[in-house]
């Protein structure tokens, strides 16, 4: 289904809603910062964190409010949009609680499942895949678990890369812009509008979140962004009856997906719980190579831009050309991962695990 199909956008054009979203978040973030200090929603420094003093971490609330208010004020509401906003509200609430006093991974997962099911049963799901020889293949009842897995996976992937000032926000903004561009060309201008509004909301927050950050988005923001990006990818990029359309969301969201997949593999072979913490994420590896905090974030922005441009090109070329680009992209990413040594840590972790079985509590 297309959220907002047939709906009217007021005011006409795209610049009014985008300026509204940007302005709401830009003006609202300082207020949220004061609120975070008042209710003690602070991220305390620790050995595995980059900052050295308590930081307010409720910044994602400004993004949520700006995104929601802009949609309510500029778009005609329908059941799909209500489900999107309702699921986002559940995700935001669990994020706020986590930022205030902590939430267990199991509790967080339960809320994510409920939020995902809300939008799935509203009709927002991947209903078919395409085969280069057999045409369209209906997923039937498989559309429900596959869509659920996608939403939960992307939600947590964005959450896991939120490790440096401006990293998750910037990567998410680039992804949202790309989703909007491709959705506008391929399927629905209304779905594209939602993606552009989300991007504008993030840009309003980045002024306060880029290094040196004045406020963190916290789980309130990273979970919210991952949830909405996963759904916008379904709405805007998976409705086209071409095999390439299935790969476009994966390419656009390649940075968080790749980092999460290698974290899972690394921890599994290292004998550590999947949700345990480590300092071997992509941004940690770049820091270990001597890049500064700011340059590491900019480097990951660069990777995100390259992946986004690749996705746009894949959407424009033929299926055969798109598949060749996809193969070349996978090979390039594999070489890059090997050069950065993202998997080398698993041997060290395995040996350490044999000596001392100590499992750390879950943190990003």
Tell me about this structure.
- With 364 residues, the protein is mainly alpha-helical.
- The protein has one domain (15-350).
- Helices cover 68% and strands 3% of the residues.
- It has 14 helices and four strands.
- The chain has helices at residues 15-38, 60-74, 79-101, 105-120, 143-160, 167-186, 189-209, 218-237, 244-252, 254-269, 282-288, 293-316, 319-340, 345-355, and strands at 42-43, 55-56, 128-131, 135-138.
- The strands form two sheets. A two-stranded antiparallel ribbon has the order 1-2. A two-stranded antiparallel ribbon has the order 3-4.
- α3 (79-101) packs antiparallel against α4 (105-120), α5 (143-160) packs across α10 (254-269) and α7 (189-209) runs antiparallel to α8.
- The longest helix is centred in the N-terminal third of the chain and has 24 residues, at 15-38.
- The radius of gyration is 20 Å and the shape is globular.
- 45% of the residues are buried.
- Mean pLDDT is 81; it is low at 1-11 and 345-364.
Strand content: under 5%
Class computed from helices, strands and strand pairing: mainly alpha
Tell me the number of structural domains: 1
* Chain oligomer state: single chain
**Bulk shape:** globular
Rg over alpha carbons? 20 Å
Number of strands: 4
Main sheet, how many strands, which sense, barrel?
Answer: 2 strands, antiparallel
